[in-house]
């Protein structure tokens, strides 16, 4: 279990995707109430649901963790993680610091890594360069960035994603070292039921 968190635009999704070039790794597909961006596919990038459906899943205890981020709700279902574990894959969670804190409480063995941008200017340039969010969304995410970065110290490791290939190499090294210390194999039965 590898948790990747970062302020929006720092590059965690790009790093997570690059890791999945190794078929042993897979990114858990979260549920969200956010609208799909152009090119995003339901069931691939997220399970896109309306607020009522999300609330039903909360009530059913379907989520290992869920949080409100940038005015939308996001959550990791037990089913999403279990299906990957059953396939024998190493699970990557691309989640915010609130979710990371919850998953670490459930699985202290999970490797939690915080991705930092080289600067706030670079972060803003990346959000704009991605070309998928309007000005209001970019302003909201930049306004939250420093508050999110304040949680970086809660993570096992911090990687600065300046040169992408270097950051990816650092990430692979940390995962390999983590695996030597603690194999990334978990019994799905260990997943504790939780509604929060
Ligand atoms: N090292 C890098 N140098 C320059 N651009 C980068 C680097 N890493 C990622 N990017 C670019 O920055 C943009 C944001 O990356 P990405 O979508 O992976 O961020 P994110 O942290 O997952 O954001 P979000 O939390 O909003 O999903 C993308 O256009 C990506 O191609
Ligand atoms: N706590 C959780 N946070 C999640 C989950 N899925 C994504 N996220 C985080 O939300 C923000 C915004 O994502 P975006 O796709 O709208 O840019 C980002 O920090 C993600 O890591 C989740 O299941 N739980």
TrEMBL record:
Naturally occurring in which organism (per UniProt): Acidiferrobacter thiooxydans
Official protein name in the record: Guanylate kinase
Pfam families: Guanylate_kin (PF00625)
CDD domains assigned: GMPK
A Gene Ontology molecular function term of the record: GMP kinase activity
Top-level EC class: transferase
Gene Ontology terms: cellular component: cytosol
Catalytic activity, reaction form: GMP + ATP = GDP + ADP
Nucleotide-binding listed as a keyword: yes
Binding residues for ATP: 6-13
